[in-house]
Design goal:
17% strand; 3 helices; alpha+beta; 84 residues; elongated; single chain
Length: 84
């Protein structure tokens, strides 16, 4: 998905050995979703969801907007039933 939806950020890294005078060039592909934050990551995920809808006829549910705000109650985290 990174290759399909993220811009190509190919870079060339040159290595030089001072002892031998030898040099080597390596091409790297900088496309990684882990580098995305906020709006660019949201857009990346939405592009994938749209592709899945169009190409695979696969519907994915909208993410839970409150996911990170939800906290497990101490009694739920320990596996005990809450009594009220």
């Amino acid at each position: 998905m990174c290759e399909k939806f993220l811009p190509n950020e190919q870079k060339r890294v040159d290595f030089y050995n001072k002892l031998t005078g030898e040099s080597e060039t390596i091409e790297t592909d900088g496309r990684r979703s882990s580098k995305l934050t906020g709006s660019p990551f949201y857009d990346f995920v939405e592009d994938i969801r749209q592709w899945a809808r169009d190409f695979l006829q696969l519907e994915t549910p909208d993410p839970d907007k409150e996911f990170w705000r939800k906290r497990a109650r101490p009694s739920e985290a320990s596996g005990e039933e809450a009594t009220t």
